[in-house]
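JOB MANIFEST
job_type = single_chain_structure
chain_count = 1
residues = 295
[input]
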Amino acid sequence: MNILNMIPSVLMMVSPILITATGGMICERSGVVNIALEGLLQIGACAAASTHVLLESSLIFSPWIALLVGGVLGMLFSSIHAFASITLKANQTVSGTGINLLANGITIFFSQILFQADRTKPFQTGLLAGPFGIYPTVYIAIIVVVLSWFILYKLPFGLRLRACGENPSAAASVGVNVIGMRYFSVLASGFLAGLAGGCLVLTETIQYTVNTINGTGFIALAAVSFGRWRPLGITLSSLLFGTAVAFSIYVVNIQVLREAVPAEVFSLMPYVITILALIVFSGKNYAPRAAGQKY
């Protein structure tokens, strides 16, 4: 196994995690916990795969339309979480869990309607790799995280958004629209999660199934926490977890390990590494102080 040859694949797998984690960071920075990222990834992946299957024979740029559709539907679906947790002041964890369960069923339902199966039809080609085997989703992820850093730390808008996650009452006292900020953040996280779902399905597989996302949203949630709710931190943690996912796939090509260890052990590696990283490096709580609190 050539390590250098793994780099494009590692970056490909890191990208959806990083894009999703960026959305989760923005959402929690405003004070809303969004554990619905897994479900929003499913919505985006199903929408993107379906759109691409239906358009690829007639439009050469159908993958890009599919990514946009995935993002928009992820954003629309996240509005359920926004309405429940912000307007109705429902428990944010319960709301997010409900969306994860709903997404699992609704993607199968619409796949049955469109393709008479519990999955989308396979598409011929997804997003193609560019120079050095790097997929365009890698550049999308870089743009997303850099833009989020600039907005959160270089613009007054970002300061107001972060204030909503630290002390919403104080922010409101100086004229910040806390409700509006939180709605924006939840919808932004939904768009990014839907976009990430499209990035994943159009690079790592050839169709959407209920197993396509396979815990990526929860890994992204861990990346937010492990990265201490900061752009650089979530970038490094996403790189760690994405590398673990890639390694769990490529390690089966090492004959000595394949013969000595059952393949299921390698499949567990990303999740074990995620848990161990959170345990070993957990310390001071860097979460926004008002995250999860109703306002």
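[summary]
The two ends are 53 Å apart (CA to CA).
The chain has a mean pLDDT of 91.
exit_status = 0
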